[in-house]
Amino acid sequence: MLPFNTVEEAATFMGRNLTVAETLWFNYSAKKSDYYLYCHNILFLFLTFSVVPLPLVLVEMMRSLGFDKYKIQPKVNLSLSEMFQCYKDVMRMFVLVVGPLQLVSYPSIKMIGIRTGLPLPSLWEIVAQLTVYFMIEDYTNYWIHRFLHGKWGYEKIHWVHHEYTAPIGFAAPYAHWLEILILGIPSFLGPAIAPGHMITFWLWIAFRQIEAIETHSGYEFPWTPTRFIPFYGGADYHDYHHYVGGQSQSNFASVFTYCDYIYGTDKGYRYHKKVLKKLKEGSKIGGAENGSSYYYPTQDLKSE
User: Fold this and answer.
1) Angle between helices 123-148 and 184-193 (to 10 degrees)
2) Whole-model pTM above 0.85?
3) How far apart (Å, rounded) are the C-alpha atoms in residues 186 and 136?
4) In this structure, are residues 7 and 18 in contact, taking their beta carbons and an 8 Å threshold?
5) Each residue of 212-228: pLDDT tens digit?
6) Which residues are bridge partners to 256 per DSSP?
7) Where does the signal peptide begin and end (predicted)?
């Protein structure tokens, strides 16, 4: 809740006129508690998981209209009812785990210093902090993900997420309840190390989930803007990890590829891409000629 009753009081405090964005923020947040503002995360998560995957559902239903060539595993077909079942399973976990966790985690947000007042952060400040958050989350998530592919971690927890060997957008948060709690730690570390404004925190939560949905989309579109982000993994990169499944010791990264490269856990994927390239240059085997199909020789798994 802002300690000002009017825009004029806020302007006097800051020694300048409020920007348009700050005026809008004042009008919306001045009389709302910090806890109420923080709980907006629940709404944003619900909207993100409900709305963002919908275009992917339409694409899956219209593959015969030319979208099939962008499908990474084109032999896999999911019905509308199967995709909706995945959504229901995710929403059940959201109601039982994610929502309550958001409600009780507010003290940690206050402790690390996420602010709700004025002035608002600049665009460059937001971009810089979001970049830091993605880097920190990516590095810590990498090691947790590797742990979850150990014998105990996979058999007890991570196998749930790998039920979808050909991932879809709705399956991005489809996981064991304990995995959801564990992977909340990397998401929290960035804001804890470099705390910013609540708006930046909202954006971080939304963008991270949108990124997860995109990498689980099952489609590699040539117009995807993330293709221009250096070291970004993307859908094809993560789809390989799901295809190999429990045997996979490759492509653990959640966002970027540098950890897999540095620690040598992308060798299977790079071997796989080399094989596909040779197949394209030579004879047309299976469906590999369209650039989207997978072809996995036995050596691929052994090379990991």
Assistant:
1) 140
2) yes
3) 7
4) yes
5) 999 999 999 999 999 89
6) 232
7) none
